[in-house]
Design a protein that fits this description.
Distance between the termini: 25 Å
Shape: globular
Mean pLDDT: 89
Largest sheet: 10 strands, antiparallel
Structural class: mainly beta
Length: about 170
């Protein structure tokens, strides 16, 4: 934390010394990477804990597909959620996927779900996460190890589970 603050102060001072008043303009681009169709088991809860309401949603399988990857989601993972009284839920889904050519990739997806009211008092819903992929470094999927990803759910349709669209940050 201290390093981040010092870096921010240093960058601001550097900009001022160099006569710039705003940071350089850089807008990350997103590239569609894959869509996950995750099947889910029966949700259960540990109840109210010292950290909030703990809920576990088993991941039982599913499929995924993108321009450079396709396969199945392995049974045995779970989405561990922690909700507070204000309508904010932290999620951490841990599971594995297997590509059609037999490569196993570990996935850890962290994010937040927030149901609240916007500045006008209207209900709002926010759900975003940042999956991390751990692929064998000697595989054609090693590119997943060295990139950041973001995902968002897709609602509607007939699928009984959750559909997540994943983008690579460029």
């Amino acid at each position: 934390m201290k390093k981040a603050i010092l870096l921010s102060v240093f960058m601001t001072l550097t900009l001022i010394v160099n006569g710039q008043t705003e940071p350089p303009k850089f807008t990350p681009q997103l590239e569609f990477a894959l869509q996950l169709k995750v099947t889910l088991g029966e949700t259960y809860t540990c109840g109210e804990t010292q950290h909030g309401r703990r809920t576990i949603i088993p991941i039982t399988g599913g499929t995924f597909e993108g321009p450079n990857i396709k396969g199945t989601i392995i049974n045995g993972g779970a989405d561990y959620q922690l909700a507070n009284a204000e309508g904010r839920t932290e999620l951490e889904a841990i599971y594995s996927i297997k590509t059609d050519d037999g490569i196993y990739i570990h996935v850890r997806n962290r994010g937040i779900i927030c149901s609240a009211k916007d500045e006008n008092g209207n209900p709002s819903f926010y759900f975003r996460a940042a999956p991390q992929f751990e692929a064998p470094s000697n595989s054609k999927y090693a590119w997943m190890n060295n990139a950041l990803f973001v995902c968002a759910p897709e609602f509607g349709g007939d699928f009984k589970g959750i559909v997540l669209n994943v983008w690579k940050v460029k």
